[in-house]
């Protein structure tokens, strides 16, 4: 088989690929546009069924329904592979009407634009076409390939996390189709995310008549914020940011309540444990007599850490990349994805396998057109190696 086999096959499918991508991008599927997400889910269901997948929906009330598609391979003892892509975008309703799918040039590079084209409708489609190439080449030497297309990743996969966790536990490896950075990069680690609230309780009183009888919760919280923010940079691989602070109702009342919300990012579980302990130490005592502090919250996305098992997937991707003329590099990301969930369960995971491009979550979001066949070939080759 020629080294460029999958690339050649993918290149021959670019016309239908772009027709599919245009259809997907032109369906409004912002996270809170349930009708649009469900419409996209039905479109994808038909696409999967056309490839012989069995499908079902995990129905939701607030968000769009999550789509699960399963294709049985020809090796009952083979690998059970899970591919993950999300259908939702960060954009509001009618965004696709305002700026539908288009193809143009950027600094002499052919690109495609439209809401969600990079993050991550093209990624979902890359996964579909990668499997399509395996099927057409009679290389379905796996026990099963399962796709989950969830509807709420852009808000932290609130309703889909348990479904993804269940499917991951039933799988031998997970491929996440979030956007690639550049054509020769994949993602092998992501920082975990935790969110905390620190509440200060004091005692209200008249600010002009008897302020001395009050206990100013804002003042106490200010001391806490300074001490908490000082933790940032003291723990390897961890960051802390006090991002919101609120308190008080009227200027003539000594405020009896104030709070702040904190974003924490960690590279590993050790960092999470250390930064939580540091926060507990700060909030365990107050500066002003008569005030009290409450710390609440916790991790929302466990860190996607580099492990020996996940690095095996990177090495397989590097082997495939070498056949494509690419020197694959693995990088880490400060943002979380569904890879955090699957890796946090100990399932070998690799991410960043989607399209290359830039400006995700921006109205000028784009993908690089000429790199698509190579990215499809990379995913096809990785799936094939996992089957072996």
From TrEMBL:
Keyword Hydrolase listed? The answer is yes
UniProt-annotated catalytic positions = 88, 153 (proton acceptor)
Needed cofactors, names only, are: Zn(2+)
Cross-referenced InterPro entries, in alphabetical order? ArgE/DapE_CS (IPR001261), Bact_exopeptidase_dim_dom (IPR036264), Pept_M20_glutamate_carboxypep (IPR017150), Peptidase_M20 (IPR002933), Peptidase_M20_dimer (IPR011650), Peptidase_M20A (IPR050072)
Query: What CDD domains does this protein map onto?
Result: M20_CPDG2
Q: Which stretches make up the Peptidase M20 dimerisation domain? A: 189-285
Q: Which UniProt keywords are given for this protein, alphabetically ordered?
A: Carboxypeptidase, Hydrolase, Metal-binding, Protease, Zinc
| KW Translocase (keyword) present | no
Q: Per its UniProt entry, which superkingdom is the organism in?
A: Bacteria
Q: Which one of the record's GO molecular function terms can you name? A: carboxypeptidase activity
Q: Which Pfam families match?
A: M20_dimer, Peptidase_M20
Name of protein:
Glutamate carboxypeptidase
Organism of origin is Dictyobacter kobayashii
